[in-house]
Design a protein that fits this description.
The protein is an alpha+beta fold. It contains 15 helices and eleven strands.
Length: 371
Amino acid sequence: MKKIILLLMLFHLSLMGYSQVTITMEESGGVYKVPCTVNGLKMKFVFDTGASVVSLSQSMASFMIDNGYLSESDYLGKSKTHIADGSMVDVLVVNLKDFEVGGFHLSNVTATIKDGQNVPLLMGMSAIEKLGKVSLSGNKLIIHKPKVKLSVEEIASLRKEIQQLFKAQKWEKVIEKSAQLKNATMFNNQWDYYYYIMALDYSIQYEPETADILLGLCDEWESSGVKTSDKNRSILYERKANYLSIYKWDDKGSMEYLQKALICSSLDNKFSILSSMSSHYDLQEEGDYAISYLKRAIDAYFEYKKISLQMVLDNKVQDNLLGLYYYQYASLEEKYNNDFAERNFYLKLSAKCGYKEAIDFCFKNNINYTK
């Protein structure tokens, strides 16, 4: 116990000269789980400084063997270890060639395979020590790495390269270069965070687990004290709300951040935030709020695009996003008010804007939307 307390004290020391990555851990049954990737297999391990090595269950090890994530050459032999009641048991020892956490790849991590029912996956000291300096803050695991020493000129050149890659929509390269920059500067510019987060955001559809890294970056940016414009702060809050809702199922937390985003929003993203808030209220079956916020989203979009309802009625607007908003509005009117006249009116507006689903509906139901 003293050893564990000492380790935790060391982990919490202020670490000057180190870069960091923040990982949001998942709380389950009073313990925290860290998303990791072992030899290409995505897993979640209980963070446990009291465990000397990484621990796998027999069922997980069997799955890894059957699916090519472990091979016979990875087995190192047998050993003995203590279990909860203090007795010694035999365990198999294996070598995990690649143990990735928070973007850091740890090579040749020793792990044991324990037999028994409901044996947890433990991220023990054989992995934690290889991470170097780490600290804990609630459900946040912060990994500190020695900063790569770059000159002022090299840092400026790297920032310029990231900006150019971002404009070219080369998201993987932006992520790679942003990680390099973070390892050198700990990010002291709002655009450092912005480019990194947005690039990860664009690629998240391919790697949903990236949400944990994104949430960590958002938390870090929010608490960093880095001077941030209202527009970028609004984008930060909106992104965090989306991650909380989609990947953490935290609707309450998501709505709180949407409210924050709305307060500091600008004309070019206010409508997006209002639309998201409408969707949240719709999921909660609060129809009046859902309709009200979607109407506000449409009004904000009118202002941003400098268009009007009369222009839509005169068939002078071809806009897919506005068409989507009208289509959603029609659905809300039918769902909560059972008002088919209003539904058809907004479906016509949606079709006038060129929204395909609305056009198809009008065609199938003999609704003339051109007049």
